[in-house]
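Hey, can you fold this?
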Amino acid sequence: MAGSTLEGAAKEIGVDPRTVQRWKKRPDGDDRRCGPRTKPDNALTRAEKEKILLVANSAEFRDKSPHQIVAILADRGEYIASESSFYRVLREAKQLAHRGRARPRTPRPVPVHTATGPQQLVSWDITYLPTVIRGKYFFLYLFLDVWSRKIVGWEVHESEDDTLAAGLLARMATMLGSLLGLVLHADNGGPMRGAMMLAKMQQLGVMPSFSRPRVSNDNPFSEAAFRTLKYVPFWPDRPFASLEAARAWVEHFVAWYNEEHRHSALDYLTPSERHEGRGDAILENRRTVYELARRARPARWSRGIRRWRADAEVSLNRPRAGRRKEDQVAALT
C-alpha cells in the first residue's frame, strides 16, 4: 500500500529488507530461506540460562542491573555470562522490566484535543523578551486559538505569576464572551499550574490540559508562534529599553500576525479571516480564479487546479498517521 517503506513493512513481519528484495526477484515468490544448520559454538546451554535467571532473581541481586551483577561477580573471581547475555536471557524470560522497590515509571498519556471551530481549543505559554539590563527579562503571556491560529489574548509583564495569568484569562472572557467548555492547553510551568490560574479556569468553566512532564513538544502551536515572533523581519535590533516599549512592539506584532500574516497551515489565510468565518469564501474565490485561468490557457495545466483548502479539523498532538500491520504486510506484495 502506498506510503509504507520497505524497512518499516519488513520490520513488522520480522524479516530483513534484503530478504524481501530477494523474494521480489524470484518469479515464483518462494521463501527459500534455510536458516542456520548448526548451533553456534557460543550459544548458552539451558543450564547456563537457568543459572543466569537464578542469580539475577536471588535476594542479593534482584534489585541490581546486569551491569552491577557482572561487576560484583567479577570482583569475586566468578564469571557466568556477559551483560548482554544477562539482558538477553531476562528478555526471553519476560523479566526485563522494572526491578527493585522503587516505584516504576508510569507512562503519561499524550494530551490530544481536536477543534472544529474557533474558541474551542486555546494554547498558551510565556516567553522571554530581552531588556537592556543583562539577566533581566520581560515576560510575554500569549494565548493562541489553535483552530484559527489567531492570538486571542496577550500581555507583557515584569514577572511570571499565576495571578497575572488569571487576570488575563478573565479579561479574555469579557472580550470574547463565555469561555465555557473551552480547552486551555499549556506546559507544566508554575504560572500554568498555579492555584489562582486553576481557580479562575474552574470559575469560567475552562477545562485545563497540560503537557507531559519534561516533554518539550507537547505545546507546538505556542512554540511555533514564539518562533515566528522572534524571527519576524521587524524584530528589534536592540533589547527593549522599557516595559512600555515591549508592550508597544508586541501590540504591533499581534496586529500584523492576526491581520496580515498569511499562515501556511491555513493555506495562506490570515488568522483573522479564518477566525471570523471568512476563510471558506476567500478560498472558494481563489479556486474560481484558478479554474478560469485553466480554462483560458489549458495547455499550461498538466493537472487539476490547486485545491485551496484549509483543514476543517485541527488537532493538538494527534498521533502521526499510522499504518496497520496488515496494511504494511500488504505493501510487500
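Oh, and this one too while you're at it.
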Amino acid sequence: MQPKRPYQLALYYALPFVLITTALFLFLLFWERRNLAEEQREGLTHTATALLQQIIVTRSWNAEHGGVYAQIDGRTQPNPFLKDQDRDIQSLSGKRYTKINPAYMTRQIAELSKSSHGYRFNITSLRPLNPANRPDPWEEDALRNFERGAAYQQSMVRGSDPPVFRYMVPLITEESCLACHGKQHYKTGDVRGGISVTVPLEESERIYHARSRAYLVTGMGLWLSMILFIFLVSYSLSRKVVADMAREIELSRLKTAIELAGAAAHEIRQPLTVLITMSDLLKMKLAKDPETLKDLDAMIGQCRRIDAMIARMQNITEYRTKTYVDDIKIADLGGDRPKQEP
C-alpha cells in the first residue's frame, strides 16, 4: 500500500466537516433571515399601531366634544354628510366656521400626513355615510374579519408601486358615536367600521436589506474562517498520518527483507559451505596441476564472495533499493565488495 499525499488525505478527511459546517451556516443564515423579516414586520406593526392609536385618541376627543369648528376656507368646506343644524356658524366678525366631526377630521389628517410623511390613513365601513369612504377589496376583507372577531389585519404589499405595509383595526361604537351613527342602528360595542394605515416600505426595506447583507458578509467570513481552520487541521493531521504510514511501510519492507535474507542465508550457506570444503579437499589432491588449481582458486574465491554477501544480508538494518536495469529497482543487500583474490 502506497501512502497518499497529505493534501489528498486532508481533502478526504475535511470534506464531511466542510459539508456539515456549510449546512450549519446555511441554516443559521436562513434562520437569521427569518428573524430579520419578523423584526421588520414587528417594527412596522408597532409603527402602524402607534399611528392609529394617536388617530383613535384624537377621534375620541373630537367625538366627546361633539365635533370642533374650523374656519371655512379652500381646504375646509362644510361636510355635506354631516346632518347637524349647527354645522355651519358665523362669528360676530363675519368669519364662517363649519363643524368638523371625527370622520372629516380623520380624512384631513390623512391628506396632510400623506403629503408630508407618506403615511395614508383611511376610515371606512361596510355601510359608509360618505360614498367616498367605501372600502377597497383588502379593507372589505378586513372588515368582514372584524365582524367575525378579528382584532386586526396586516399585510405587506411588495407588488404595489411603491411597496407598502397595510394595517387595519376595527372601530368600536361608543356612546359618543351614536349622535351620527345611531340612525344606522349601531349599538354601543358594535363594529361599525375600521381605520387603516398604509406605511411606505422604502425605508424599512432599505434597513432590512442592509442588515441582511451585513449578516451575509459576516456569515461568509465566519464560514471561510471555519473552512480554512478545518483544512489546516486536516492537513496537519494528514502529514502525520502519511509519515506514520510511510514509517510502517518501511518497517514492513525491512521486516520482509530481513526475513527473506535470513531464509536465503540459511538455505544457501549450507550447500555453499559444503562447496568450499570440497573445493579445499580437491585443491590438496590437485597440488601438482597448476592450471586446474588456478581455476579452482577462482571458484573458491567466488564461493567466499557469496558467503560474505550472505553475512551482509544477515546484518540488514534498513530497506534500500538500487537500480538494476533501466528503471527497475532491486533490493540493495549492502553493495558489491571489491573482488578478493584468494
